[in-house]
Design goal:
Strand order of the largest sheet: 2-3-1-5-4-9-10-11
Order of helices and strands: HHHHHEHEEHEEHEEEHHEEEHH
CATH topology of the largest domain: Alpha-Beta Plaits
Oligomer: single chain
Strand content: 15-25%
Largest sheet: 8 strands, mixed
Structural class: alpha+beta
Distance between the termini: 25 Å
Shape: flat
Number of domains: 2
CATH architecture of the largest domain: 2-Layer Sandwich
Number of strands: 11
């Protein structure tokens, strides 16, 4: 199928179906997200490249020793099946396009537009780890108790988003804020594991600083307060890729402490929570969700390996010292998205330009417009 150019495609539809649609907005598309430059469109729907990749994967799956490593083989087979589905769907869209051009109504054109938008998102989610689960961590930044409360608001937002998407979220570690008042629980830091197909693919671009502007509920004068929180997202790397990453006892420090939060048979009575620190880099991982110390230690070790593996991937493009030196701080000037509750209501993404005045909906997990736009970056 030849590469399609989105603007030319809709111009052609408008010209050839003018008997059905008298005033189709050719020069001014319905939304900015409908306009995609031709270079991106060719890359996304480049069927020839996908067919070539299918041939490579089919050759790999035909090797006699292919199933010698079951986990890798399963991932390769899944990637092959996914590419075949994408090619088949694009070919179906091409057939439907030809039918709509010949005799398409306005509703049929709009329906085809939606199908193309949906397929485009799925094609963008074709990274190596996009289909995996993800670990999301929220760090409160500048803003004191307001920032800690903002961390709790972000956690709730992602919880609601995951519920909408059918993802499951499990809290791995939570460090509560100082001076928390009854009914308002703030976080200095909280880490969650999100399980679901494409969880990492959808959430990976949420990494960055999120800024909140509101009238402070913690300020006696009820003054306007700006708060910041840093969100970090990395994939749940397959164990087969982590098996060669060995951590010697002298490379790490293991600390045990009591889990925070309300009681239970073991919580707050035994030092069941575990923090493992990699001494060379200062990177650490914590886990306190399990009641048994040994289970928390195993999970914390797995999380630490994921973080170190993620760092190793970054080192391929940048030296470790530069990565540590350019670490983003949760403060003014580094935000990727702003949430303004006062003096007006607005959520705006600084990277994509997407904005909405429906702040309550966004904080209730309606992030699709923002996430779909950032995926295409």
């Amino acid at each position: 199928m030849p590469a399609l150019i989105f603007d030319e495609f809709f111009v052609k539809l408008a010209l050839e179906t003018q008997s059905h649609i008298r005033q189709w907005p050719i020069s001014k598309p319905r939304s900015r997200n409908c306009r995609i430059n031709s270079a991106v469109w060719r890359t996304v729907f480049d069927v020839a490249a996908k067919l070539e990749k299918i041939k490579e994967l089919e050759a790999e799956t035909s090797r006699p020793d292919f199933w010698g490593f079951p986990e890798i083989a399963a991932r390769t087979s899944e990637e092959l099946a996914g590419l075949k589905r994408i090619v088949s769907d694009i070919e179906d869209l091409q057939v439907e396009l030809e039918m709509v051009v010949e005799a398409g109504t306005e509703s049929e054109i709009e329906e085809l537009r939606k199908k193309i938008d949906k397929k485009e998102i799925l094609v963008f989610l074709s990274g190596r780890y996009d289909r995996e689960g993800t670990v999301l961590t929220i760090h409160s930044g500048a803003g004191g108790m307001d920032a800690q409360d903002w961390g709790a608001m972000l956690l709730r937002m992602y919880e609601r988003y995951c519920a909408r998407m059918g993802f499951k979220m499990v809290v791995l570690h939570e460090s509560f804020g100082d001076g928390v008042t009854e009914g308002r629980v703030g976080y200095k830091e909280v880490s969650v594991y999100i399980k679901g197909v494409m969880a990492y693919g959808y959430l990976k671009k949420e990494t960055g600083v999120h800024r909140l502007v509101r009238l402070s509920p913690f300020n006696a004068k009820h003054l306007r307060q700006t708060s910041f929180a840093l969100v970090e997202v990395f994939p749940d790397f397959p164990k087969s890729e982590l098996k060669d990453l060995e951590l010697r006892p002298e490379d790490i420090r293991i600390d045990f402490y009591r889990s925070s939060g309300p009681g239970g048979q073991y919580v707050n009575k035994r030092e069941s929570a575990v923090r493992i620190t990699h001494l060379a880099t200062g990177i650490f991982a914590t886990c306190q969700t399990e009641r048994i110390q040994g289970q928390n230690r195993d999970r914390a070790m797995e999380l630490l390996k994921m973080k170190l593996f993620h760092l190793m991937q970054e080192e391929r493009a940048t030296e470790l010292s530069k990565i540590k030196g350019e670490r983003i701080s949760a403060s003014w000037g580094n935000q990727i998205r702003s949430y303004v509750l006062d003096p007006y209501k607005l959520v705006k993404d600084n990277r994509t330009g997407v904005e909405t005045s429906q702040v309550d909906d966004v904080l209730d997990g309606d992030l699709n417009e923002f996430i779909e736009a950032e995926i295409k970056l």
